Amino acid sequence: MGGLADELRRTIAHHGPITVAAYMEAVLTHPQHGVYASRDPFGAGGDFITAPEISQMFGELIGLWCAVVWQAMGGPDPVALVELGPGRGTLIADALRATRGEVPFRGAARLHLVETSRRLRDRQREALVQADLERPPAWHDTLDEVPDDAVLVVANEFFDALPVRQFQQTAQGWRERLIDIDDEGGFGFVLAPSAAAQTLVPASLQMSAPDSVFEVSPSAISIAHTLGKRLAQRGGAALIVDYGHIESATGDTLQALRRHRFHDPLDEPGAADITAHVDFAALGRAAIEGGAVVHGPVLQGSFLESLGIAARATALLAGATHEQSREVATAHRRLVDPAEMGTLFKVMAVTSPGMPPPPGFA
Asked: Is 147 in the same domain as 278?
């Protein structure tokens, strides 16, 4: 297999089995062989397609959401407009286009993109060429690098790509799942020899059935706590859109996609995008512990409908060709229909204390 697989084999041979989190991090962010460093996984030609790539309506509505929330914040100038994991830059480009008429908001906004992939930063620059920004955007490796202003944060399909640790219920208690080299030189799951700390699994799940799997993302919880603390101290709001579960639950959700088809997560590491479902309850608890207020989560379909996606779709149909009309209708359905993305994807807002519920969460 070569490449990343050989590096992981050497690591395991020298140091023993690795955590699922360490494996995910290597697959996604290895500087040479990681998914985001070696190629573009987004879009029809990649491994998966995100809501902004499905339709401009998604990014436009989020842009207007930001402008309305900024007004509810009292119109701070400056305000850091931040996207975590901007992908190709499609969402933020659509959001900025939709807010061209919001002159005070555009004048106050300073664009900050948190992106570690140099390849994707180049794609984001291309997407923003027509954005008419008064100031050039700034790129950062982490949220901590963003200037300490009031903030509006958008995170669409960001948390699902953060590494998770997995724990399995056994007769001896919860034991961490690790990744080892199997008899054929590939990779397989094994269990740590000793029980894991009980505090890693919520009390409500301690008595789960044998072989149940629980996932926790320390990096996601850390970012949510940092975000909550920042919002409490400096003011602002964050919008988190992702697929996952509203309440903490058991389940092995580790999955990989390669060219829009499911792929064995342990086969050919680096050849497929790898993710896990987001635990919105855990994110919410972390943000609240940081001092912020949590709204939702709500279903993506109901959120977009409350923002007026149906009216936006109707406007796009005016003067559209038959083919364009079909594309708009298909995109609308895909974003909101319960059988598509409407219920699998959830939306959660995090705000500073004292703010009214933002649009979509009343």
From this structure: yes
Instruction: Give tens-digit pLDDT for 191-222.
Output: 999 887 777 888 899 999 999 999 999 999 99
In a domain, 357, yes or no: no
Task: Tell me the per-residue pLDDT of 17-41, one tens digit each, with 9 for 90 and over.
Answer: 999 999 999 999 888 887 877 666 6
* Domain contains 11: yes
Judge if 253 and 304 occupy the same domain. Answer: yes
- CB–CB of 80/150 below 8 Å? yes
Q: Which domain holds residue 169?
A: 4-28+164-215
Answer whether residue 358 is part of any domain: no
Separation of alpha carbons 257 and 264, rounded Å: 8
Q: Is 16 left (phi over 0), alpha (psi -120 to 50) or beta?
A: left
pTM: 0.94
Residue 85 backbone dihedrals phi, psi, to 5 degrees: 60, 65
Instruction: Enumerate residues 6+ apart whose C-beta is below 8 A from 18.
Output: 8, 11, 12, 178, 179
